[in-house]
Write a structure and sequence with these properties.
This protein is of the alpha/beta class. The chain has helices at residues 41-49, 88-94, 103-116, 132-144, 162-179, 190-196, 229-258, and strands spanning 2-12, 15-25, 30-34, 56-62, 73-77, 150-154, 182-186, 199-203, 210-215. It folds into two domains: 2-66 and 149-258, P-loop containing nucleotide triphosphate hydrolases (Rossmann fold), CATH 3.40.50.300; 81-147, no CATH class. It has seven helices and nine strands; from the N terminus they run βββαββαααβαβαββα. Helix 5 (162-179) links the parallel strand 6 (150-154) and strand 7 (182-186). The longest helix has 30 residues, at 229-258. The termini are far apart.
Length: 259
């Protein structure tokens, strides 16, 4: 399924946050959103997901959802948002409970996504017994259990240590290669954007406008290879140069606002 944004704008009262945002996410594509703090990345994701009412422009989902899709749009947040009294399998089951599935169909979906996310051996474990990385795997498993047409990810790895983040990026790439889910991915981490995305949309500081769209030409499977290290680093540097000066200004503005 394709996501098409045309001239999307948003304001909180008198404060403009987004202005004239137009781009598309092709079926099966992963697009990362980066930009200075406060540029409206999460606001844009929430507009796409329907958590905020659209004020200006249009957002359309075009095409048929995948077979077995229960929710067209599904979020994965930085906060794992797991129910502490439910097991891993129970947390995944939560996403399926209000859908017309038989007991056998529900059990099959849960088992499938637990296996896909490396969680089958932890099905009956409570969240408090898991590491942060494993808890986020549960969040991802819960999201893909409904076979979404579009996956919306808001800094899902930012609360994790560097080693765990690397492992989960490998997991995400493996999942996407199998599921081919259209994905819009918000991050502050430029290495994540280059590693995971097919394209990176760079937003300016508030009000967020599209400053650049950067293609990632290195094949996903080869981005961790030594042979491509220089090219990958150059792409990260290019992204940083696009946002550096505005990130510094945005940081000062946010510190002033906090004061």
């Amino acid at each position: 399924m394709q996501v098409v944004l045309r001239q999307v704008g948003h304001a909180y009262g008198d404060l403009p946050v987004l202005d004239g945002i137009s781009f598309a996410v092709a079926p099966g594509e992963t697009v990362a959103l980066i930009g200075p703090s406060g540029c409206g990345k999460s606001t844009l994701l929430n507009l796409v997901g329907g958590l905020l009412e659209l004020q200006q422009g249009s957002i359309d989902l075009i095409g048929a959802p995948p077979a077995g899709c229960l929710n067209p749009l599904t979020f994965v947040f930085q906060d794992f948002a797991l129910l502490p009294w439910r097991s891993v399998a129970g947390n995944v089951a939560l996403a399926l409970e209000h859908h017309a599935l038989s007991k056998a169909e529900r059990a099959a979906r849960i088992d499938e996504v637990l296996a896909l996310c490396g969680l089958r051996d932890f099905a009956q474990v409570l969240p408090k017994q898991l590491s942060g990385g494993m808890r986020q795997r549960v969040g991802i498993a819960r999201a893909i259990a409904v076979k979404p047409a579009v996956l919306l990810m808001d800094e899902p790895l930012s609360a994790l240590d560097a080693q765990t983040r690397e492992l989960l990026m490998d997991d995400l790439l493996a999942i996407w290669s199998r599921e081919r889910t259209t994905t819009l991915y918000v991050t502050h981490n430029l290495a994540e954007a280059v590693r995971l995305a097919d394209r990176v949309v760079v937003l300016s500081r508030r009000p967020g406008r599209i400053k650049a769209v950067v293609e990632i030409p290195v094949p996903v499977a080869e981005r961790g290879a030594v042979a491509h290290a220089a090219k990958v680093q150059a792409l990260q540097t290019e992204l940083w140069q696009l946002i550096k000066s505005e990130a510094q200004v945005a940081d000062r503005e946010m510190q002033h606002d906090a004061g």
